[in-house]
Every structure is written in C-alpha cells, then in structure tokens.
C-alpha cells in the first residue's frame, strides 16, 4: 500500500523565525506536507537581506530557506500584531496549534500563554546556549573542540567549519521533535513544550559520536588527522595534472583492491611483515597510514585525473574527485537528479531547487518558490492566509 | 496538558545497520521512546571495533551509537536468519513493521518482500550515492565543494571537515522520515518505502543553503573566507597569552557594542566615512572585514584571556573562547548540563552520556547503555527479544 498524501499533510505550523535552524525546520516540515506560515516583523527579520544575494541584492539565502511557506508580516510589538499571531497558532483547526520559533522569551507567545488559549498546543523554542543566552553556530562550534581538530596537521590555528553543521542538525532535530509530538498529540490529545538549544544539539552529537567520551574514559580527546579519516584508511591523493581524489578503504576488500589497483602489493606485504601489522584490520591501516599513504601516492602522481577516474570506476574502493560548487553545477549533477526541480523565484530567477532528500515511494517532495515578504498578511486581522 | 509517555512510545523498529547515519537514526528514535532492535551478523558488522576505542580495545564509538537498543545477531546469509529478521519486522504488533537499514539491495529484506508479509510496512533504506552505489561522508563531501572553502585563506589544499556532518544530517532525516511515515500510517493505514541517499542529503542542504544556487544565478560559487563568517561580521581574535575567541556581530547592536568595548569608535567612524560604508549594514561589515579585523585585533592582543572573557560577559557581542574537547569536559560543561546522565557501560566504564537535545516539558530523554553484541538474540528463533 502506498499513499500519495504527504506524511504531514493536514498540519498547520506557525514559524516566527530567522537565520538557519528554525527556517530549515519549517522548510523540511513543509516538504513533508505541512502548511507552514512564516511570520516576520514588518520589513523582515534580521535575515531578510542575508548573503548570498543576487547582483540586485535579493537574498538567495532567504528565498532558499523559505520556499513553500506562506509569508505574514505583523507589528510584533503591538497588541494587535501579537494577538493576530496568537490566533494564527491557536485557531488553525485540528492540525494547527503548532508554534516553531527561535525568538524565545516573548511572554505573549510563550507556551503558557498559548496553552491557556489552546491546551493541546505544541511549541518548540530554539535557543542558543544551554542556559538560554544567545549563541550561534560559529560560537557554539568554537567552544566545543572541532576547530582544533580541523585542517592540516601541524597548523596552530583552529579552523572553523564552512558548513553551519550545528544549525543544520538543530533544524532537523526541531522538525523531528515536532513530528513526534504531533504523533503523540493525535493519540493522546496532549500538547508539548519543547526547548532545543543549539549548544545542546552540538554537545549531544559530540557526545554520541565519542568526542566527549574519549576525555572521560581515555583521559584525552581526539587530535587532528588532517584529511586522513580517523580510525580507518582514507586520505586524499593528487594526480599528475593537479586533480585530487578522496579515497576511503573501509573494509579489507576495499583496501585489497586499492593495493592491487596501485600495484603496491609486494611493498605493502613487506611493510606489514616488518611492522607486525595486519592491514585487513582498520586500526592497523590507520596506525600506519603515513607509510601506506607514501606507498600509494606515486601511482596517483604518475597519472592524469582522467586516467585515475577511469581506473577507480572499476574498483570497489570508495573514491571521489574533489569538486567545487561550480563544478558540481557544471557537471550536470543537479539536472540529472530528480530531487532537483526548477523553481521560478521572483527576484531571483529560474534555478534548480532541492526537494527533500528522503524519497517516499519514489517521490522527492518539492515545494514551490518563496512568497514575497508579507504577501499573505491578512487584510482583516482575524482571517487566516489560506 | 503534558504527557510523560515519550512521543514515539509503542513503536518497534528493527535496525539492520552499521557506521554512523543509520545507527544515529535508531538511537534518536529510541531516545524519543521507540523500542529499537539492532540486528547484526554474528560477530558484529563492519563497525563493531571502530575507533575511538578504550585502552582494552572496546569501541567507544559502537557503544555510543547503540545505547538503548536491543542487540540481536543472526547469520544473515542463512534462510533461518533472514526469516527471523523478517519476522522481527513484520510480527511486532501495531507499532512494529518498521525497518531501518543501510544494507540496501538484499532481496530478502526488500520493501516488496516485507510488504508481501505485512502490507503496512515502513522501510527506510539509507544509500550512499544518488545512483545507489556506495559512498561515505568523506567521499560525498569531497565531491560537493565544502573542502575547497574550508581552512585558512590562500591555502591550496582542500580541507575535509572533522565532524561527519552529512552522516549526522542523514541520520536525522531518516529518523524524521520514519516519524512522519508512522504518523501517516496511523491515520491512513498505509506503509511507505523510503530511500535516502547520503549524497542527496548533502546536495539538498547545499542547495537549500544557497551554495548550489549561487553558481546557477550569479555564475560563480562561494569562495573561502577562512575563519571569517560569510556575509556578516565574525572572526577569531588572539589574546596576549595565546587564548583565542570567536566573535560574531550579527546585528547593528552587537557591532556597536563590540566597537565600544574595544574602544575603536573614532577609527571605525573615520573608516566608514572614508570608504562610504555603513557598518550598521552586515554586508558592509563583511565587505570591509579586513579593515575592521585590523582595528579590533589590538584590543584582544593587549589583554589576557581572563580579562577578555570578563569584558565580553558584560557585552551583547556573541563570543566564545575556543576550547578543546578535553577542556569542555574539564570545564564541567557536561556535569552542569541535565542532558548528560551517567551510564555504566560494560566494557567501557562510567561516563556522562548525552540524551536528546530537544527537551519535552523540561525532560531530556535519555537511554540506558548499549547491550553487548547479540545479548538479546532469541534462543528459539520465533520469539521476540522483549
């Protein structure tokens, strides 16, 4: 049995939101079928002009994260505006009563205020730090240890990540928490007051993945390994014409195939014997990676990028040529992928926009373009923009 | 109204799984109240000994990601083992019929095979590349463009991320997709066949965040900015005793406070006038960041880390001292955070383990330790390990 209704159809979510995590949560819920209304102050929130922008100054960022949502603006400092938002949340039918926000600490839209109007309300507040004080991806990341293990080995300076990974994870946890709370409410009638600090998102994942367990159990934390994958065999190699490949040998078969491909079987066997190592074991491959890297690198250095790419295609070894964003687009990766569909975004133009990465029964759920700011603001305040 | 039942209680999920994304999805669903049974081949999957490990070789990694799950082992190449797993998925009551796996392509546990036994089954297969061929976080990341914009400006080599951010996002999308599919099944009775490639996870997020839209609309992609935050004012500064702080001024108020704190108001105003810039605008702060960084850096360089930390605490500026993982633990961050609770993990010892970062009605959902591999394998195959 399959079902062509999207899994979260019938839900109405009000998002009082800005920046990355909270709008990403709203977009993701929208892709899954929920109706999402983003509420902004008149003129837009702090992220309305955020870079990247087009040559004309239109925000690619804002439109990318707010696709498929209604856009309502209101004077959030006025009682009329606050009351309109309260009604948007609480009057929106059986699938409504859901508030997603990163604007915590406003008593007029606190959980208690809204629950007095609608007892089964679900609210999710995204916070910065654990203690509720402000924090953003870049500050949370600095405090946690990842910049110190990122970048070339031997470099003294910490290296920030380019992808705001904690914002992304926080937005996805938020969407999940709302989806799970809805499932419970539909069974029991109970609402939920959910809080989700960005710092806790980062701490939880760093804990679960072991980074914060090592200092507790082994007495010291991870140190950087540059572009080498920690704990197994993986690194990057450069070709004769300056191409670069990331190579990973996770399993004994991957490693054997890599050794065969690069013709270093005898040398690897001799090294294994001399060092008492067994390269079928990933810990031995990791421990002796400098030697292995040195044995394997000349094969790449002696061949063109095209030759290397062709040879790797017939191997089990996990590999990928490093590409820039421009190359990804120029290579036709987006146009070949059914997850991307063309949107015609007012102010931006036509481009291939991404749907949900999870395909349900073969379908990648897409959304339309972003509405222009305030396009769905009710003219008579009590009405809903639907 | 609140509800102390966890939001996904009553669900039974079978996870045939390894590495990061899929086990993280299972752990997260377990934290939300689902009963999760991880199935492994006898002796464990490829990740059973994965680093980090203790001095005795026990995997901190495996135990961290498999907390709160039952552990069943079976000979997955035998008909008896396969049949046992099929029954685990399909016989597990109204909340069962859910399979989460990263082991795609096995016809005995394909969606069609299981749907023939239980029409409302929900299956989620995590794949590597979009086309179904293998790929891992490190190869997906290399192909997408982020390593080329990570690391110090001017460095020729791409810099891999240390956090496997795509695995994390993929695991969270997987948990969300299952939660949403369950919500639909409980309303309509329909199952779902969900596929989720790691590569599509990365492409979708890179698209949504604008990185893949810029080449399409502006004709060229993002270039690296080192530790400077793109599009606004944020960078790192070094103190007299070698401490380092990440500083972000997202709003005009943040920036004004930073300028006041560091006593460079006159110089900043003179520069603004000379350059025709308005530093209340984040694009102007970003464009002229090298000048602003240069004006502000001496204040940090002239003060000790303790002095800087004290001064920043009284400011609205977003700031964080860079810390290592060891410092996070030594600073008592975990013990002060109710999301962390002590687990006594056989083979590993006692440590503070992270619960779900989203708190429901003030409660951080925790799980118990990981079971030892195969501890819940049914002695008589038809039985369930509950």
Looking at this protein, list some descriptive labels.
homodimer, 386 residues, alpha/beta, Rossmann fold, six-stranded parallel beta sheet, three-stranded antiparallel beta sheet, 14 helices, disordered C terminus
Short description:
Helix content of chain A is 36%, strand content 17%. The first copy, chain A, is an alpha/beta fold.
Q: What percent of residues of chain A are in strands? A: 15-25%
The CA-CA distance between the termini of chain A, in Å, is 31 Å
Number of strands of chain A: 13
In terms of structural class, how would the helical and strand content of chain A be classed?
Answer: alpha/beta
The first-level CATH class of the largest domain in chain A is given as Alpha Beta
CATH fold node name of the largest domain in chain A: Rossmann fold
Helical percent range of chain A? 25-40%
Oligomer: homodimer
SSE sequence of chain A, one letter per element: EHEHEHEHEHHEHHEEHHHHHEHEEEE
């Amino acid at each position: 049995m399959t079902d062509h209704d999207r899994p979260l159809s019938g839900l109405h979510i009000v998002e009082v939101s800005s920046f990355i995590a909270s709008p990403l949560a709203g977009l993701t819920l929208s892709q899954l079928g929920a109706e999402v209304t983003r509420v902004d102050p008149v003129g837009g929130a702090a992220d309305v002009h955020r870079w990247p922008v087009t040559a004309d100054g239109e925000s690619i960022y804002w439109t990318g994260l707010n696709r498929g949502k209604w856009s309502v603006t209101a004077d959030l400092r006025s009682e009329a505006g606050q009351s309109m938002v309260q009604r948007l949340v609480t009057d929106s039918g059986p699938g409504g009563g859901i508030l997603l926000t990163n604007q915590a600490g406003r008593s007029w839209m606190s959980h208690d205020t809204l629950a007095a109007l609608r007892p089964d309300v679900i609210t999710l507040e995204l916070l910065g730090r654990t203690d509720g004080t402000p924090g953003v991806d870049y500050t949370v990341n600095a405090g946690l240890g990842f910049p110190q293990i990122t970048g070339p080995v031997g470099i003294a300076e910490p290296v920030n990540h380019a992808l705001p990974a904690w914002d992304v994870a926080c937005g996805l946890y938020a969407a999940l928490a709302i989806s799970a709370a809805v499932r419970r409410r539909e069974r029991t009638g109970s609402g939920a007051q959910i809080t989700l600090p960005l710092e806790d998102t980062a701490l939880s994942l760093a804990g679960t993945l072991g980074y914060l367990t090592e200092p507790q159990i082994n007495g010291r934390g991870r140190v950087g390994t540059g572009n080498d994958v920690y704990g197994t065999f993986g690194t990057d190699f450069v070709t004769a014409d300056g191409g670069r490949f990331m190579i990973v040998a996770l399993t004994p078969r991957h490693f054997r195939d890599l050794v065969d491909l690069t013709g270093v079987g005898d040398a690897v066997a001799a090294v294994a014997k001399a060092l008492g190592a067994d390269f079928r074991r990933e810990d031995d491959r990791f421990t002796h990676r400098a030697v292995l890297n040195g044995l394997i690198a000349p094969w790449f250095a002696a061949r063109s990028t095209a030759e290397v790419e062709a040879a790797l295609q017939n191997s089990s070894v996990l590999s990928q040529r490093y590409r820039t964003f421009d190359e990804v687009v120029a290579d036709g990766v987006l146009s070949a992928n059914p997850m991307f569909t063309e949107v015609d975004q007012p102010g931006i133009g036509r481009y291939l926009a991404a749907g949900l990465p999870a395909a349900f029964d073969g379908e990648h759920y897409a959304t339309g373009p972003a509405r222009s700011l305030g396009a769905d603001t009710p003219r008579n305040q009590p009405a809903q923009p639907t």
